[in-house]
Amino acid sequence: MLYRILRAAARVALRWYYGDIIVQGGERIPPRGPLVIASNHPNALVDALLVSTTLRRPVRLTAKATLFEHPLLAPVLRAVGVVPLRRAKDELAARRSGAVSGAPSIGRNAESFQQVTAALVQGGAVLVFPEGISHDEPALAPLKTGAARMALAASEAGADGLRLLPLGLIFERKEAPRSRVLVRVGEPIDVGAWRTRPDASRDAAGLTADLDAALRRVTLNFASEARAERAVALARALAALTDEAPPPVAVPRSLAMEAELARRIDTATDALQTAPPEVVALADRFIARLQALEGRLHARGVALSDIRVSPRLRHGARFLMREGLFLVATLPVALLGRVMHWIPLRVARALAMRPLTRDPSRDQPAMRTIVLGLACVLVWYVVQAALGTCWFGVVAGLLWVVVLAFAGHVDFVVGDRRRRAWQRARTYLALRADPALGHDALIEIGALVADGLALEAALLQPHASGR
Q: What's the CATH number for 2-217?
C-alpha cells in the first residue's frame, strides 16, 4: 500500500517538475515474470522515480547502502523494500575515515543479492543501475557486473523466463523545470537463452558486455560535453526543419525525434574525422547556413519550429479565438493553483538550491526540488485540510485539498501552453508583417533538408561500404 501511495505521489511530482515525459517502446516491457531492469543513471533519485512510474508492475529498487544511514530516509526505504548495495568506493571511503578497517569485502553484498534472487524467483521486477553512480558525463560510465551477476544467479536459482531489460533515460535539461524527458525501452535479453549460447562468453563479464551494447542503443553517448551540446542544438533545429506542419501548441514537442537526430549527428561527426576535405567543408557550410537561418529568424521573433504557420488572417483569427477561450476557461483555476502553491514550491526550491554551492552536480537540483517539493506540498495540504475541516467539516476539508491538487496541475499545463501560444503568435505577426520572410525561409529550409541528407550519405556511405 505504501509503495502504491508513494508511486502515485512520485508520478504527480514528476509531471509537475518536467513538462513532458514520453515512453518509447513501452510494449517491450514484460507484463509479468522475473525481470531485471538495467538503466543508465544520469539524475540521481529521479531515475528510480521515472522507472518505477513507467512500469505498471511493482519494482523492487536497489540503492547505495549509504542512503540507509539517513535517520529519516532509512525507514521509508526499508518500508518500500529497497535493497541496499554496498559499493567498493563507499567502503574505501569508510576505511580512509577510520570507520572500518580492512579491504572491501568481496561478499559485502551477499545478503542483498539473496534478497534480489528471492524476489526474481518469485516473479518480481528489480531495478539496478549498472553504472554504479549518478553522474553528469555525456556518455555511459563503464558498467559494473552487478546486474549481470544478479540475473545469472537468479536464473540458476530457478527464475524461469528471466529477462534483462535495458532502459535508457534521456533528459533535455535534467536540472531545468518544465524540460522534457524521454524514456527508451530496449529489447529485453532472455537470460535463460543467453546462458545456452554456444560461445564461450557466458559469464557475468560477457552478459555485462551485451548489456552495455543494449544500453548504448537506447541512450545518447557523446565523446565530450561540447560534442553533446553541438549535436543536441543541431538536432533541435533539424527536427524543426523536418516538421511538415507547425506542431500543436496544446502539447510539447516530443524529444524522441531530436534524440534520434542527435545520435545520427554524432555518428556523422565521428565520420568527419576521416572524411575528405571537401566533405568537411560542406559540413561546415551546412552548419553555418543553418545557424544563420536561425539567427535571422530569431532576430525577427520567429521560432524555427513555427515557420510553417499560416499567415492568413482567418487562420490567425481562429487561433486567437481558440487560445483565448482556452485561457479564459482555465485562467481562474490556474490562478488558484499558482497562488495556493506559491509558498510551498518557493520554499522547496530555495531549500533545494542552497546545497549547490557545495555540490554543483547537475543531478541535484531536480532530485532535491522534487523530494522537498513533495514534502512541502504534502505538509501544506495537511494544513489546508485541517483548516478546511475546522471551519467547514471533514468532507469540505478533503474536497478542498482535491481542488488544490487539480488547480496546481492545471497551472503547469496552462503555463506551458501559454508560452508556446505566445511564441506562435509572435511568429504569426512577424510573417504577417513580412510575407517574404516566411517564403524565403521555406525555400532555404527545403535546400537545407536536401543538403543535410546528401551530406549524411556522403559521410556514412564510405564507412558502410568499407564494413
A: 3.40.1130.10
